[in-house]
Amino acid sequence: MYPRLMTSIAEPVQSTALTADTAGTYAEWFATLADPTRVRLLHAVATAPKGSVRVGDLAEKLEISQSTCSHHVRRLADVGFLHVDRVGTSSVVSVNQSCCVGLPHAADVVMGALQNAPCCPADLPDDVSVRAIEDSDLPAVLAIYAEGIASGNATFETRVPTARALRRRWLPGHAWVAERGGAVVGWTALSPVSDRECYAGVAESTVYVAASARGTGVGKALLWRQVNEADDAGLWTLQTSIFPENRASLALHHSAGYQTLAVRHRIAQLDGVWRDTVLLERRRAGD
Question: Which neighbouring-strand residues pair with 192?
Fold first, then answer.
C-alpha cells in the first residue's frame, strides 16, 4: 500500500533533487491518474452534489459497467484519492480532501515551483484598504469571526470570544482590518506561538473575510499587508492550520508564500467529529 495523502507531503524549498521515496510516491499518484476513466471518475465524485455517490450511480453516470467502475474506484482508493464506505448493501465513494492538498503540492515540487516562493499576493483590489484594527472595529471583527465559526470549516472554536479575549491573543502591531465602502469586510492578526524567547520571530496567522466579500480579493489585500509587515518587523516564520475542505483559504495562503508542510490527520474534534488540518508555513526570504 502506498502512503496515504495525509502523511507529510512537503519537500524542502531549498532542495534541488527529489528523494527516491518521494519520487516513487508521486509517480504512483500520477500513474493512477494516467487513465482517462479514472480522471472522469474522480471528477464525478469530487463534484457530486452530496459530496459522495454510490458506486452503482457512479457507473451509470460514466456509462461503464459496475465491475469496471469498482476496479477504478479501488485503484483510486489504494493511493488515497478516494474513501469507500459501506452503507447497507452499497459502496459509497467520497473524495479524500487531503488529495486536494497533496496532488497540487506534488506537481509544484516536481516542476520546481516551490524553489522560489512568492513574496505576497498579486492583483490586489483597488477598492479595498487595509489598516490597523481599532477598538471601534471589534464588533464587526467578532461578527465576521462568528460567520467563520458558523461555516464549520474555519476554526475548531464553537463560540465567539469576547473582544478583550481576542485582543489578548494578538501580537501587538500585527492586527488589521480590510475596509470597502467604509465597512469592515475582513481582518487578519498574528499571534505568538510561544512566550519563549527563541520563538520570538514565529507567529500564527489568522485570516477571516466576511461572507458577503469572499472571492473579491479582500483576503489577498489582508495577506499582502500581513506578510509585508511581518517581514519588516523581523518575524522569520509565519504558520497556520487550515481545514483541507477550505480550498479557497489554502490557495490564498499559497499565493502569499505559505507552503504545505503536512496534513495532520484527526488532530482534533469539532462538534464530535475528528477533523484533519493542513499545516502551512511561510519563511521570510533569506532565513
Answer: 203
Report residue 49: phi and psi, to 5°: -55, -35
Identity of the amino acid at 171? L
Averaged over 209-219, what is the pLDDT? Answer: 93
Strand ranges of the sheet holding 259-270, from the earlier edge strand across to the other edge? 129-132, 175-180, 183-192, 202-209, 237-242, 273-283, 259-270
Q: Among residues of the chain, what percentage have pLDDT more than 70?
A: 89
What pLDDT was estimated at residue 110?
77
Q: Span 18-41, mean pLDDT?
A: 89
Cell numbers found for residue 264: 495532520
**248 C-beta neighbours (distance < 10 Å), count:** 14
For residue 49, give the DSSP letter: T
Distance in angstroms (rounded) separating the CA atoms of residues 252 and 256: 7
DSSP state of 127: T
Which of the following CATH numbers is that of domain 129-283: 3.40.50.2000, 3.20.20.140, 3.40.50.2300, 3.40.630.30?
3.40.630.30
- pLDDT value at residue 100: 66
Q: In the 8-state DSSP scheme, what is residue 48? A: -
Q: Just give the CATH number of 20-110.
A: 1.10.10.10
Q: What is the mean pLDDT of residues 197-209?
A: 95
Q: Are strands 237-242 and 202-209 parallel, antiparallel or unpaired?
A: parallel
